[in-house]
Amino acid sequence: MLACISQSVMATPWEKVKNPSQGDSSSIGSYANGCLAGGERLPLQGDGYQVIRSERGRYYGNSEMIVFLQQLMKQSQQLKIGNVLVGDIAMPRGGRFSSGHASHQTGLDADIWLRIPEKPLSPQALKTVSALPMVDVKNYKIIEKNWSMKQAQLIQLAASDDRVSRIFVHPVIKQQLCKTQWKQRDWLRKVRPWFGHYYHFHVRLKCPEGSTTCKPQTPPPAGDGCGTELASWSPNYKAPVKTEPVIKVKPKPKQVKVLPPMCTMVLKS
After folding, report:
1. What cystine linkages occur within this chain (predicted)?
2. How far apart are the C-alpha atoms of 178 and 33, rounded to whole Å?
3. How much of the chain, in percent, has pLDDT values that exceed 70?
């Protein structure tokens, strides 16, 4: 009982809203400082996928994201990859979480689990299913018995879509993808290493075409990202010794994030 009261007190205003605002779908602000107007609901089950932890109410997104996910899962089903489990997208009106996510605020981010059952899970199994780690984090290596080409193909399928801006995975997963022989490797540029993503991957879409309220992210660096940049994430990486004198730069004070004014309207509408 005390835990429930504590969670209620800690909840942000966005976590207390249970329905999307009316009107056309619009992502406002940046991925980590924004909101979602006219959010659309991803059906909890469809061709090739199921939504997990639906009780949290985080299956809303920009209409572009909902269409993308449904098309991705349909393609994965056609390729016989398996039944894909979709995690958090955004809350009904996007916005900030009290914990768990810094982004996922504009309905253009989605988490997709790397545990891929062959068949849809029962309602009871959906409530109890646990994540399946792909990485032995302590030893910084892939868990061979859990990783297969179906995980690799699903990430490739998502990253190859022109609507995708970035995909975040654990550096070891990126390393595994880099070692795989692909006919086309351009999509690897979008797959970015980021700690924490060892049991799921995080898809981030570009701002919808013609959007005037969405703040885009800088495109990733050129190349497939499989060289020095990726190696630098390893705990055993030794950076080249710099011979130039080190100039100390006074750190700038951390700026307080201020939500776009439109988000106040979205929250109160």
Report:
1. 35-263, 178-226, 207-214
2. 32
3. 95
What pLDDT does 246 receive? 67
Tokens of 234: 């390893």
Is residue 48 predicted with pLDDT exceeding 70? yes
DSSP-assigned letter for residue 200 = E
Spatial CB neighbours of 80, under 8 Å, sequence gap ≥ 6: none
Could you list the beta-strand ranges (E) of 67-214: 84-86, 109-113, 135-136, 141-142, 164-169, 191-193, 200-205
Closest CA to 225 of 161, 153, 169, 146: 169
Amino acid at 92: P
Lowest mean pLDDT among 9-23, 109-123, 130-144, 146-160: 9-23
Q: What is the pLDDT of residues 58-81, one digit of tens each?
A: 999 999 999 999 999 999 999 999
CA atoms within 13 A on the CB side of 106: 26
In the chain, the domains with their CATH numbers are: 20-233 (3.30.1380.10)
Structure tokens belonging to residue 73: 């899962």
**What predicted TM-score, i.e. pTM, was given to this entire model?**
0.91
Q: For 29-97, give the DSSP string.
A: EETTEEEEES-EEPPSEETTEEESSGGG---EE-HHHHHHHHHHHHHHHHTT---EEE---B-TT----
- According to DSSP, residue 102 is labeled S
Is the distance from CB of 167 to CB of 201 less than 8 angstroms? yes
CA 89 to chain centre: 8
d(CA 36, CA 182): 36
Q: What is the pLDDT of residues 173-207, one digit of tens each?
A: 999 999 999 999 999 999 999 999 999 999 999 99
Q: CB neighbours (10 Å) of residue 30? A: 18
Tokens, residue 5: 């009261």
